[in-house]
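We were asked to recover a plausible sequence for a given structure. The inputs and outputs are reproduced exactly as logged, with field labels preserved.

PROBLEM: sequence recovery
POSITIONS: 653
GIVEN STRUCTURE:
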């Protein structure tokens, strides 16, 4: 008999209460009565983050003797943050009570249609038409059977964490004798048949209903047992599952003429079968078909849309739409280091609810490195794993970014040709790896002027065609932004500037995505910030009266305008940060004036703004961010530091 955890019920109740009740976490509306485990973790992270930011007692220590009776969640002597983290940890192994409904466990992520996706709405991903089950995978070692779980090309092994495989799977006794597997394997087969019948619309509705009723009865009883809720004897095993096992034993005896009576304990068999069945059911009830790879709001919390970024996303949507409709070809982003190519791809996946896979290329890669890599396991020796490129193209709806593709040798680039053809496959060593339903493939590279970059082969360029996108650094001036938008040449821009002086003014562009990292602007809308920018940065004092009038009905704006000196200094300093960053970027793209080692990326810009929010000194903000780079043992960083200091001194006179 297996030992039940007397505290399991109370701990599970705590989680189920959290799962079932909240309709709002932080400032995020939740559209369903029931949250899944991922939403709970995201919500708890947000609660912890907001509490830390506002100093709301997250470090308070819970007094001795304060615990929930009957629960294994021990709180005494821990900080509130530690308790919330423990609740978060419970969600990784939480088994929802199946009760009378299965469908409640299969919630879909809700997404709002972005404006840049207009006319390309079909790119929003709602899930694969094919969603295969996790199946038991059997490996025999002498007289022992070792059970793992396989789905497509993914394998999960009990007792392994998320760092060594796709997701964490709790340890259990997954080693069976050959005799035990004969019986338990039959039970698992019966379960999988019921799963398939419930999901197959071609099967008679009455039979589907019967399969569902039988499935729910067995699984619900086992689930209640695991949570300590069976009403009968405290040592009782799930009777329905035991009956299934007895039927399996009788079936094996009758169907196998050479069967020999072997010693087995039905209670032990029931325990082992219950453990494996429960784990397999949870995997199949929560299989996300790649959704564990969808970028999270937490990861992209600092990324906001602004005009230049909006244009990149719109261009990307247009390119992906052509790829999806033709079901062939490859999209392509080319731009200087730090223009935001990777961020654009990941953000696109996040907003369209798609799994995201990033595969970085290197000069020393061979063809096999695109498909698999090797890792050493202390128990199982050296094992081969699929790369994120191979996994990504087999995940329905995924966005797969092959980064710095021009670093690959031409013969290795040739491996990618099949991804852009009409049959869409990755061919290697006589094996075709097919591209799954509605996968969007994106290549990215820096210009070939970079030391580690080469050229893209003509055959690959032909498969890109009109799906290529040039990504530039965000424009500093209004004229530069208009030139990029309308395709003006430098000569035409200069002519336009002579006719319209406003084109020489500073664009409220990149800063529009991150101005609220400064606390004084946190409650100000993008529109109002743009008006403030015109007044204080571009010296349109005539617009100040409009702001003053609007502030009469907007308390947050009035409070800000009452701090004129702070507002003016902050805006002028933000302009200086943009100017310095723009010069840095232009020098780096030309490898000029000492800026030939490290560029100034979008993430670097965010870091400078955050640092400035603390120290309110532009020079210190830049130097502090650059010092993180300077810790790397890269030749030439010390010389670029001199160039940066000279630039700062020149611009901040």
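RECOVERED SEQUENCE:
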């Amino acid at each position: 008999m297996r030992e039940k955890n007397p505290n399991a019920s109370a701990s599970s109740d705590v989680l189920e209460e959290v799962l079932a009740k909240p309709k709002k976490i932080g400032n995020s509306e939740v559209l369903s009565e029931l949250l899944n485990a991922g939403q709970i973790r995201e919500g708890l992270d947000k609660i912890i983050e907001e509490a830390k930011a506002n100093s709301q007692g997250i470090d308070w220590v819970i007094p001795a003797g304060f615990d929930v009776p009957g629960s294994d969640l021990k709180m005494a002597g821990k900080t509130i943050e530690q308790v919330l983290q423990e609740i978060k940890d419970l969600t990784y192994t939480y088994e929802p009570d199946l009760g009378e409904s299965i469908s409640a466990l299969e919630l879909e992520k809700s997404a709002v249609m972005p404006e840049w996706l207009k006319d390309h709405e079909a790119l929003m991903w709602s899930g694969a038409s094919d969603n295969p089950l996790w199946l038991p995978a059997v490996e025999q070692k002498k007289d022992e059977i070792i059970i793992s779980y396989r789905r497509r090309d993914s394998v999960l092994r009990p007792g392994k964490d998320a760092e060594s495989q796709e997701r964490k799977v709790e340890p259990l006794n997954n080693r069976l004798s050959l005799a035990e597997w004969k019986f338990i394997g039959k039970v698992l087969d019966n379960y999988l048949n019921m799963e398939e019948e419930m999901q197959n619309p071609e099967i008679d509705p009455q039979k589907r209903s019967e399969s569902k009723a039988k499935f729910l009865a067995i699984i619900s009883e086992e689930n209640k047992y695991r949570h300590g809720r069976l009403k009968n004897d405290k040592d009782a095993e799930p009777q329905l599952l035991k009956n299934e096992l007895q039927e399996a034993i009788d079936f094996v005896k009758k169907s196998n003429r050479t069967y020999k009576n072997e010693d087995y304990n039905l209670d032990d068999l029931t325990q082992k079968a219950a453990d494996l069945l429960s784990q397999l059911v949870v995997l199949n009830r929560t299989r996300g078909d790649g959704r564990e790879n969808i970028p999270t709001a937490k990861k992209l919390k600092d990324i906001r849309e602004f005009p230049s970024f909006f244009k990149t996303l719109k261009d990307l949507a247009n390119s992906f739409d052509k790829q999806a409709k033709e079901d062939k070809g490859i999209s392509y982003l080319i731009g200087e280091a730090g223009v935001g190519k990777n961020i654009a791809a990941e953000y696109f996946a996040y907003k369209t609810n798609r799994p995201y896979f990033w595969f970085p290329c290197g000069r020393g890669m061979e063809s096999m490195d695109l498909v698999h890599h090797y890792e050493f396991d202390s128990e199982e020796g050296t094992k081969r794993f699929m790369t994120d490129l191979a996994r990504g193209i087999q995940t329905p709806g995924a966005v797969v970014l092959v980064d710095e593709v021009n670093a690959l040798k031409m013969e290795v680039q040739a491996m990618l040709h099949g991804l852009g053809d009409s049959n869409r496959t990755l061919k290697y060593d006589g094996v075709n790896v097919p591209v799954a339903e509605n996968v969007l493939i994106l290549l990215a590279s820096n210009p070939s002027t970079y030391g580690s970059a080469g050229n893209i082969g003509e055959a690959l360029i032909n498969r890109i065609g009109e799906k290529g996108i040039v990504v530039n650094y965000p424009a500093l001036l209004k004229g530069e932004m208009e030139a990029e938008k309308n395709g003006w040449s430098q000569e035409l821009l200069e002519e336009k500037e002579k006719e319209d002086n406003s084109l020489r003014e500073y664009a409220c562009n990149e800063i529009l995505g991150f101005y609220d990292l400064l606390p004084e602007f946190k409650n100000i809308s993008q529109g109002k910030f743009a008006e403030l920018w015109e007044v204080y940065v571009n010296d349109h004092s005539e617009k100040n009266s409009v702001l003053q009038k609007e502030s009469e009905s907007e308390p947050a704006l009035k409070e800000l305008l009452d701090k004129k000196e702070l507002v003016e200094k902050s805006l002028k300093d933000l302009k200086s940060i943009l100017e310095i960053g723009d010069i840095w970027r232009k020098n780096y793209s030309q490898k000029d004036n000492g800026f030939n080692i490290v560029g100034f990326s979008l993430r670097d810009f965010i870091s400078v703004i955050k640092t400035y929010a603390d120290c309110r000194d532009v020079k210190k903000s830049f130097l502090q961010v650059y010092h993180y780079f300077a810790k790397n043992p890269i030749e030439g960083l010390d010389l670029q530091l001199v160039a940066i200091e000279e630039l700062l001194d020149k611009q901040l006179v």
